[in-house]
Design a protein that fits this description.
This protein has strands at residues 3-7, 10-13, 18-25, 33-39, 45-51, 58-60, 68-73, 78-83, 92-99, 112-113, 117-122. It is mainly beta and 123 residues long. The strands form 2 sheets. Strands 2, 4, 5, 6, 9, 10 and 11 form a 7-stranded mixed beta sheet that branches. Strands 1-3-8-7 form a 4-stranded antiparallel beta sheet, with no helix packed on it.
Length: 123
């Protein structure tokens, strides 16, 4: 069992940066891939980024590529999402997730989810 808690969200002006953290409990966190998803008002949940359990492989949604960086520190049982050059369209609740399923851009690949953290980008 893994419990995830996101933090680091907030209000930022367009062009600014935020760093989201995902703190995990449970000794098996290091064996799970980690994904970040977001849900904007009135929209479906969408994939943002993912990182494999080892941290070797990452991938990003086209909408955030070059602006966001996903990372993890297994020694600290934590995952991170560095978000730079934020745009108003990045406004959403951001969720981290852990799992071992295939197709890591799909929510179904993840077994554990955090409660989400709000990110609001003003223009």
């Amino acid at each position: 069992q893994v419990q995830l808690v996101e933090s680091g969200g907030g209000l930022v002006q367009a062009g600014g940066s935020l760093r989201l953290s995902c703190a995990a409990s449970g000794r098996t966190f290091s064996s799970y891939n980690v994904g970040w998803f977001r849900r904007a008002p009135g929209k479906d949940r969408e994939f943002v980024a993912r990182i494999t359990w080892s941290g070797v492989s990452t991938s990003y949604a086209d909408s955030v590529k070059g602006r966001f960086t996903i990372s993890r520190d297994n020694a600290k049982n934590s995952g991170y999402l560095q978000m730079n050059s934020l745009k108003p369209e990045d406004t959403a609740v951001y969720y981290c997730a852990a799992g071992s399923g295939p197709y890591m851009y799909r929510p179904s690949a993840y077994d554990y989810w955090g409660q989400g953290t709000q990110v609001t980008v003003s223009s």
